[in-house]
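Morning F.,

Quick status update on the modeling queue. The single chain you submitted on Monday has been processed. Sequence for confirmation:
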Amino acid sequence: MKKILALLVLLILISGCGNKKYAGYWCRYDETATIVVLLNRDVSSEQKKDIESKINSLDNITAYNYYSREDYAKELGQDVDDLDIYDNYVISFNSMESIGTYVSDFSIMKGVKEAKQVNAKQNVTLYNINKNGTYTFQNSDEAKEDDIIKGKYKVKKGVIIFTPSGKDSEDILLYTKDDHLCEDADCTKIYFKSDESCNAK
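Structure tokens below.
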């Protein structure tokens, strides 16, 4: 009986039951502001020029792109008349400053059907921590199989130590604090519990 009990305890330790708390996906990303400006079907060239002038006058813009209904139809391989889509401008910013004001300004411009803020994820990093002491890590939401780092980990005194496979790889540390995982001891860069697509749970 003692041998059976000892074997059960050993199996529990090997299976990593002590790591259940941290098992699963943990994600971190930078959120950037994006405004999508939908255009009326009868928008004129002059109105588009005015909209582009407004876009180029904004201080914290990083980039913008124009997409027509024809662009979407070609991408989707469908007839343009079958798509309930509008020509639009997608505008990216390097900060959240004045985004609400910009949305309001675009909304009242001639030729604009609607302007709305859509926040985008950038610099996505994702850990998948397994109960058996192994993990995977990827630093892109579009990472391919060869880009995914695999290895083992252990939890020690409030720190998770990740050891990637490979001779030249260095250990990576994440700190545990208030049910979060953090890149630094002060917890200024936080990983949150997520699914495999980096959506919060």
